């Protein structure tokens, strides 16, 4: 049986981001459980702020078309997203806005309707970014018709949840990550 192809990225560009650490831990766990993993750095896909006039005059930027291709090439996607004001990061809103405008190669359905999505967040606060995950789920499911796994990974008290090497050591979140990995791999497993 072929390994599930999973894409992992953090919706944060900051070098010390807890969500970048969470994405790295997720990629390691998915690999440990037998998936083929691509860990994406969104710094490599610089996009202008979405503007309908810019789209009309210049078309879809190349980084958005490239991201569309990366999303549709995977059976599963894990997004580690910080919570900004109980919502999505501006980076992620912009990325989703641009990629959803790609019409070629299966359009929105190929990038969002085909892969199975799993969501996680790490935050210094007690909610662990959970409110932002609810907003992200809403955008993916209702706005983009994505299939999102019911279980979401929330890592509260992030400064104490990761060790000096960036490994997730908090027992509860660690166990949640392992369970989420098993579910995403099963849901994304190629058929046939």
Explained architecture:
The longest helix is centred in the last third of the chain and has 18 residues, at 171-188. Strands 1, 2, 3, 4, 5 and 6 form a 6-stranded parallel beta sheet that branches. This protein has 8 helices and 6 strands; from the N terminus they run βαβααβααβαββαα. The chain has 192 residues and is of the alpha/beta class. Helix 1 (18-32) links the parallel strand 1 (5-10) and strand 2. It is globular, with a radius of gyration of 16 Å.
Q: What structural class do you assign from the helix and strand content?
A: alpha/beta
Percentage of β-strand residues: 5-15%
The end-to-end span amounts to 8 Å
Helical segment count: 8
Approximate helicity band:
40-55%
Query: Compute the gyration radius: what is it?
Result: 16 Å
Overall geometry comes to: globular
Biggest pleated sheet? 6 strands, parallel
Total strands: the figure is 6
| Poorly predicted residue ranges | none
Q: How do the helices and strands follow one another from N- to C-terminus?
A: EHEHHEHHEHEEHH
Q: What number is the mean pLDDT?
A: 95
List the helices and strands and how they pair.
Layout: E1 5-10, H1 18-32, E2 36-40, H2 52-58, H3 62-72, E3 76-80, H4 90-99, H5 107-113, E4 116-122, H6 130-144, E5 147-148, E6 153-155, H7 158-161, H8 171-188
Parallel strand pairs: 1-2, 1-3, 3-4, 4-5, 4-6
